[in-house]
Amino acid sequence: MAELSTLARPYAKAAFAYAQEASDLGGWSTALATAAAVSQSEKVGEMLENPQLTADERAEKFLSICSDDLSESGKNFLKLLAENHRLPLLPEIYELFEELKAQAEATLEVEVASARPLSEAQAQQLTQALSKKFGREVQLHSAVDESLLGGAIVRAGDTVIDGTVRGRLAKLAEAMNS
C-alpha cells in the first residue's frame, strides 16, 4: 500500500493546494469522495483497466458518471488523472486529501469502540480530554462493539488507546510474567 500512497500523494497535495487557494476544501472533499466511490465500482474498475480505451475515452466515460458533482476544475483534475493512468488511485487520493484537510483545519477524526453506547456526557468528556491531549478539535465517532467486555478502544489516526478490560488484563499478565 505504501506504493499507492507514494503515487497518490502528489495529486492529493495538488488538489489540496488548489482547493485551499480557492477556499473550497468542502467542495473538493465532496467531489473527491464521489469520484473515489465511483472508481471503486466493479464495472468502472473494468472500464479503467480496458486497454482498448484511450485516456480521453476513459475520462469521458468516468465523467459521464459523476460529472454532476464536479466543478470545472474537478473535471480537469480527473482528466489529468486519466491522462496519467491514475484514476484507480482516487480512493487513496481522497484519503490523503482528507488528512491534509484535517491538518489544515486542526481537526482530528477519532473512532471509539465501546462495550456499551456512550452517554452524551461521556462523549463530551472524552472529546474534551482528547482535544487537550492532541491539541486539535476532535470529531468523535462512536460505535458499540459487543465483543468487548468493558471499556473502549480509541483510534485517532495512527494512535490506538486500548482502555478495554481485556487490554488491561493483558498488560497486568505481561507485568506479572516479566
TrEMBL record:
It holds the Pfam family OSCP. One of its GO terms (cellular component) is proton-transporting ATP synthase complex. Keywords: ATP synthesis, Cell membrane, CF(1), Hydrogen ion transport, Ion transport, Membrane, Transport. GO terms for molecular function: proton-transporting ATP synthase activity, rotational mechanism. It is found in: Cell membrane; Membrane. Its main location: membrane. It is a peripheral membrane protein. It comes from the Bacteria. Belongs to the ATPase delta chain family. HAMAP family: ATP_synth_delta_bact. PANTHER family: ATP SYNTHASE DELTA CHAIN. This protein is part of the stalk that links CF(0) to CF(1). It either transmits conformational changes from CF(0) to CF(1) or is implicated in proton conduction. This is ATP synthase subunit delta. It comes from Microbulbifer yueqingensis. The gene is atpH.
